[in-house]
Design a protein that fits this description.
Hypothetical protein af1432, 10 helices, globular, mainly alpha, 202 residues
Amino acid sequence: MKNIDYIKKWLSENLSEKRYNHSIGCADTAKKLAQMYKLDEEKAYIAGLVHDSAKNFENTELLKIIRNEVKTGFLESELKNPKTFHAIAGAYLIQKEFDITDSEIIQAVRNHTIGAVDMTVFDKIIFLADKIEPNSRDEKYTKKLWKILKDNKGIIGLDLAILKCFIETIKSLTKRKLYICPTTIDVYNNLIDNVGELLEDE
């Protein structure tokens, strides 16, 4: 794998300033969450750092990468909303540009937008770090998610926080009349089944 300085330089040259700062915030938050859940902190930092590597590519370029390079491992429904393109292409891009071969990092980058029913704890902390990092996310919203983590120990807290993210995402998508990938609904339903009754009403 390329060293951190190389990765940061590449990201600074290929992402907007706002997106780069978001990536740094995500990396720091992922490391903090990894410490909380006793996972590899350095690996989490790297996954958080590179999760949005493909974010500022044009949609046409992302589709080209998906169709010509990735080819498999995605649903056609994921290509109905351009906001999901960068996760599919990004999982490929980080292997090509940064020589990342760690399957956990690759999978976490792949799953950080719509998620997956069978997400690992590592997947979940990268997914959540993307939503609660302090550099670009709304502080009022992130405080609510941190409170959920604090009030509910272990994986239950993590799942509750992610469920809250999915609730807000689905609200946003329906409000904007955007396509909701069936996987998003599946993940939401799975979380409702597992921890839904524990989520406090606001």
